Target: Transposase IS200-like domain-containing protein
Amino acid sequence: MSMQDPFAFFITWPTYGTWLPGNDRGWVEYHHGWQLPNRNLESMCTTQMKEKQCLLNPGDREIVVAQVTETCQMRDWTMHAVDCRSNHAHIVVSATKTAPKKIRKDIKAWCTRRLKERSNPHRTNWWAERGSIRYIWNEDSLARVVMYVTEAQDRKGLER
Model:
């Protein structure tokens, strides 16, 4: 790895309809960054949804974790951590010569295929359009992110 290459990527994406533009937690507008809550915008986005929001049950989350693991193995990517919650998923992965957006796109696509096969063939929208990609530049940062993904959310008392 050269000096400019990141050590790993911390990739997060929400399920469909669970973090809409205008959300009261704030939200990220593509190419414009963090935005303040806007109830009118969130309400408008809710009315434009093509199906109900997607909340993953424990079986769905197991499917996602298994598929992320399989996809990383097949692509020869190093998966450092994976966690799937009811309304989002996290992965920490190293992949030389692969753009992080491609990693996210491929994993979301394979997870969608498996969820449609094994959980609900009628659902069309499983995931939000994009997600977050953070670059990890050293081993200390990698260790902190892996701990966050594997342990910290449970300590915050968030629903699993």
